[in-house]
Amino acid sequence: MASPVHQFEIHPLIPIQMGGVDVSFTNSALFMVLAVVASYVFLVLGMGGRSLVPGRWQSLAEVTYEFVANMVRDNVGKEGARYFPFIFTLFMFVTLGNILGMMPYGFTYTSHIAVTGALALTVFIGVTIIGFARHGLHFLRMFFPHGAPILTAPILIPIELISYLSRPFSLSVRLFANMTVGHIMLKVLAGFIVTVPLLLGIVPLAATIGITILEFGIAFLQAYVFTILSCIYLNDAINMH
Predict the structure, then answer these.
(1) Are 85 and 126 in contact (CB under 8 A)?
(2) What are the pLDDT digits (tens) for 156-183?
(3) Cα–Cα nearest to 225, from 175, 157, 154, 165
(4) Rounded to 5, what percent of the chain is helix, strand, coil?
(5) Tens digit of pLDDT for each residue in 92-149?
(6) Domain segments of the chain: what residues?
(7) Which residues contact residue 212 at a Cβ distance below 8 angstroms, ignoring those fewer than 6 apart?
(8) What's the whole-model pTM score?
(9) Is 21 helix (H, G, I), strand (E, B) or coil?
(10) How far is it, in rounded angstroms, from Cα 28 to Cα 8?
(11) Which of 20, 140, 211, 230 is most buried by its number of CB atoms within 10 A?
């Protein structure tokens, strides 16, 4: 039986060397491109032939749009509307990354900490820039809650600072860990199907089917969690707490 972590290995498809640096086009990059193309095709099919009575694709596109728009509206407010394109792109990229990894011969690029870390750092740096751009040095008040006694500053400020700096780590590790663990479980159970006697193989087969269905739900859930936390961080930068 193949190693359950073999599915996460990155393989170069088009070897490219630039100045001694390996920038090869890999299977991970391929599925990122496929995610972008799939997102584009989905939106073009959904909104290309707009009609008063929406068809199947248009309805699905509108539901996805409203889902993310409501997420931004509820967690950021009206001022978050200008950041909707980024949040929507983030949601689609993470969702399709999770879903494409569930397909046969697929690759889950969201199971790599380098990818989820890059996404989380983009959110963290962007939110921090927005906070300072809107509030200036007053943004530092985030690390000392309004109304707190000044004597508590030596305790509260380090706690708030550590909490703030840990955001990209928690955001990236949560997505990476959930995708990795789920796929390893599926691989291990699938291995039992072909290694145990036929009748006993029914048990791991049923478990694999059940966990596969669960993993599709987790794929959407983790994309939702990643996106809504990004909205909450954005709200902190815009409205502060």
Answers:
(1) no
(2) 889 999 999 999 999 999 999 999 998 8
(3) 175
(4) 75, 5, 20
(5) 999 999 999 998 888 999 999 999 999 999 999 999 999 999 999 889 888 887 777 8
(6) 6-239
(7) 102, 186
(8) 0.90
(9) strand
(10) 9
(11) 230
